[in-house]
Amino acid sequence: SQTIHQWPATLVQPVGSPLSLECTVEGTSNPNLYWYRQAAGRGLQLLFYSVGIGQISSEVPQNLSASRPQDRQFILSSKKLLLSDSGFYLCAWTPGLSPTDTQYFGPGTRLTVL
Amino acid sequence: GDSVTQMEGPVTLSEEAFLTINCTYTATGYPSLFWYVQYPGEGLQLLLKATKADDKGSNKGFEATYRKETTSFHLEKGSVQVSDSAVYFCALTSMFSGGYNKLIFGAGTRLAVHP
Prior knowledge:
The structure holds two protein chains of two kinds. By secondary structure, chain A is an all-beta fold. Chain A has no helices and eleven strands. In chain A, the strands form two sheets. In chain A, strands 2, 4, 5, 6, 9, 10 and 11 form a seven-stranded mixed beta sheet that branches. In chain A, strand 5 (44-52) and strand 6 form a beta hairpin. The radius of gyration of chain A is 13 Å and the shape is globular. Helices cover 0% and strands 53% of the residues of chain B. By secondary structure, chain B is mainly β. Chain B is built from no helices and twelve strands. At the A-B interface, strand 4, strand 5, strand 9 and strand 10 of A face strand 5, strand 6, strand 10 and strand 11 of B.
């Protein structure tokens, strides 16, 4: 069966520091991968998605970036964190690009920027 | 653009009460509709889904019917339990010009069930 992992589970970082969040998927090949952010008390917003190694598309402009160095690894990064980057970051995957496909979510990373 | 509107919470119920969480959507195409649940401190889990009009999704006693005429996908459960306390998200997907599908979420409805 497929599982999705996120690392770390929680993170507290000072403003201006760098960021690296990792997501890995097991038990499948060539998944479509997504990064979402959930701000406190709000819904989820899609940040990035990837359909293959090295292929990244951004949904909203921000100081975050994403990379996919391996088929089942998706990394979210920032060179300098802002206070507004605080939130709950969720990685998700789908087997294909059909709108009927279910998106499966990881356990999330809670980021607090102080 | 496409959007999802959910009833605001929190919804507070006693155990064994009937639950309805309203969800309506706006979409230009023919979206698939989903309910996700988020337990405290955890990621999102798929609760149920429906991929075409008049489909009924069901799971763990929860049900929702895809109503195209009213653009709704209301979540219902006949008898809630304390363990159902969580945040519930209604969402839709549709194809975008980039050739991928994106989940568009409602703001979420927090449910608190008391013994």
